[in-house]
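User: Hello, can you help with two protein structures?

Assistant: Certainly.
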Amino acid sequence: MLGGMKAAVARTRNKGYYRVLHVPIWIWVFFTLPGGLTAELYAHGFTLRHGLWLALVAAVCLWRALLGRLPGVEPRPYITHYGLDWPNLGYRVACYTAAWIAIVDPWTLNLLGLIYAAASGRWVIQQLYGWPYDLIALLVVLCAALDKLPRTRRTIHDEGSDRAWFYVGVWTAVLSQLAGWAMWRLGPAMGLGPQTLLWARLVVFAGVSALVAGLGLAGRLPRTRRYYVAPGATDLPAASGE
């Protein structure tokens, strides 16, 4: 959709529960950021190292939340209208770069791991959380540094479309990995042998990814409808409530 400036939110202040609910999301994003530590968590369970890291992340996120310096935890929405050429804030850039790593990295490694496992019969996902994880994370950071990553750009002018692209990624990564996990848990009860189960997991993972991404691109999922501001649109709507 192409048009002039459009109100991004109707509220002038964020409700308390809205702000509180965003804190555990950012704790999870930064807690899972170290790939090797996350791989150990999935493979061997929660250890003292995980507890110490979680305590540190939680403390920092709670401190930033009290200052209102986490996305979604601000007392007032920073982005009030799509098309405003305001500078993006440093903490938003850092948080959304980390969020993109949490979206892109596990999804990509799961896909590659399932393809390799289905073809070879070997499960190598934990090894992929070494240098392959770091390489993908570095590429995400590079895209952010080059001003090419939605929601991490230097200005918030394109937030009307950037937000949608971000949520297409969120829906695709979360639902496809949940579906792959469900297939892993339900496959044996369905009588699937180890090799057949690997192929079933790959098909389900890829199929759900394609379906959800398609629905997101079509704007059929929450927060995935893209809005582009026409060139030269500078005036705020008269009925914006500001």
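That covers the first. Now for the second protein you mentioned:
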Amino acid sequence: MLKMSESDANFGSSGAEMESDDSMVSQGTDARLVEQARRGDTDAFGQLAQRYERRVIKVIRRFMPDQDLALDLAQESFLKAFDRLDQFDPSRRFGPWLFRIAVNTTYDYLRKIKRKGRWALFSEAGEDRVPDPAAADPRGDLDLSQEVHIVLADIPEAYRTVLVLRDLEGFSTSEVAAVTERSEATIRWRLAEARRMFKDAWERRDRSIEEESLG
């Protein structure tokens, strides 16, 4: 795995920051590194990987809590990005393109293991572990972060992606639109729908657990 840098990529930090001078410098640096990498400079791509690796892993872990799997999928995403650099439109930003590859790679893996009947990714919460304060909760050892993953898994992919990137990772609406290649109006609508779906799914889960505890 490529060594992580000490600072995250600027992409996804906040809408205001994306408009800042620092962000413009970052985008310019990305464009320069991408151009060098497209000419075969592997060191340039390594610098891009260092700029984005930590954030890519963090986003992937929003879809699955297993740290080792997230690292593997991040590595696979960077390899795909490198192999597809000739398909990248240099008039656009590199960050959204990279995150789109990472999200799609993660979904491909989740679909594959679901078909194989191995849907058991919620046994560990990893670094995001948040203990459930309710000691008598009938869910036992299942903690809050695991429950969030389980409920998110019931939301259709297009809506889940928007909810994860916008509400959990703090991407701006314009950034999510760039990652998903959808209009900002579509992202706002999908976000509202995704929040409703999550609320309904969470309440159904709570009712089911309550009924089980009473029965």
